[in-house]
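// run 5 | inverse folding | seed 20
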């Protein structure tokens, strides 16, 4: 199946992986070897599985397969329609597929030509255009374009209002703090803060881990090299290292803080993670269960110490920086 790929956990099911870089270097370029060795894998075991790499969840459905096939068909056309800006929304002069249109908008957002909120608005507009098309085809009911746009934007505003979650209703792990500074744990408890810095060019970066007590005293910490294919991969790797850090120190009921809300949410829920970090999140969840770890989101201002340790500014830290902090 097009798009199917292995999700590596323990590597047992994939013979190509078993020979590691020695065999890889015989058939791949240096860049390809680096890409393969950067694939996030589980360090706690688990069976390898097949995922569909053309969707973030790794799950294949007939609907997603159809959308991908139709998108490939649209993109394979030798002539692409010209474009203009109508009603402040990136809009092709000719529409052959609302899906193709939405993907064009996504491309423009990725290039920085449009604001990020254009895409969800475009999705709503695509849906109302589709409904209007069906009304025309099956009921001979024609709707003016400005009415369709108005209804779509109205539905979008209702959706935003309905999905706004007050802070009091957020899970405790994601509820924003009343302070933008680091908040110490309860008396007699410890807290771990972790963060990552990552550069897309070399796909490398640094991770920083800080362990402090209820008085804010530095108890221990780490600064270490990481290899990752994305910022999400880098952050997930650092959270896993923080869990392993707690395990190595035999810490129980310790809280781990990070400023990536998506990863904190995935760490405390059973939601299916993006396939690129699925193996890492599986390790995090298992470690959290075995070691009694908890997770909490904090804004960047509450994670400044770990961020600094992971940043290039901390490159001059010596081996005894924990004993003699800067």
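// decoded
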């Amino acid at each position: 199946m097009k798009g199917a790929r292995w999700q590596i956990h323990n590597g047992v099911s994939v013979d190509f992986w078993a020979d590691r870089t020695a065999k890889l270097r015989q058939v791949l370029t240096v860049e390809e070897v680096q890409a393969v060795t950067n694939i996030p894998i589980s360090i706690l075991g688990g069976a390898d599985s097949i995922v569909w790499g053309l969707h973030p969840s790794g799950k294949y459905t007939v609907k997603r397969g159809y959308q991908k096939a139709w998108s490939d068909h649209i993109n394979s056309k030798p002539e692409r329609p010209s474009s203009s800006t109508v009603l402040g929304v990136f809009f092709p002069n000719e529409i052959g597929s609302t899906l193709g249109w939405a993907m064009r908008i996504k491309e423009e957002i990725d290039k920085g030509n449009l604001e990020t909120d254009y895409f969800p608005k475009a999705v709503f507009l695509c849906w109302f255009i589709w409904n209007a098309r069906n009304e025309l085809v099956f009921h001979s009911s024609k709707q003016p374009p400005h009415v369709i746009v108005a209804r779509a934007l109205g539905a979008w505003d209702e959706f935003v209002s309905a999905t706004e979650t007050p802070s009091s209703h957020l899970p405790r792990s994601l509820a924003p703090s009343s302070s933008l500074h680091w908040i110490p744990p309860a008396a007699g408890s410890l807290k771990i803060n972790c963060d990552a810095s990552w550069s897309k060019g070399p796909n490398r970066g640094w991770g920083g881990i800080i362990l402090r007590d209820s008085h804010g005293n530095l108890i221990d910490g780490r600064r270490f090299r990481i290899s990752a294919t994305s910022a999400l991969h880098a952050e997930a790797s650092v959270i896993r290292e923080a869990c392993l850090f707690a395990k190595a120190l035999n810490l129980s009921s310790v809280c781990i803080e990070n400023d990536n809300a998506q990863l904190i949410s995935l760490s405390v829920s059973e939601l299916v993670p993006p396939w690129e970090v699925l193996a890492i999140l599986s390790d995090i969840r298992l470690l959290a269960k075995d070691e009694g770890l908890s997770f909490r989101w904090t804004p960047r201002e509450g994670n400044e110490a770990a961020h600094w340790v992971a940043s290039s500014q901390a490159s001059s830290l010596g081996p005894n920086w924990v004993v003699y902090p800067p």
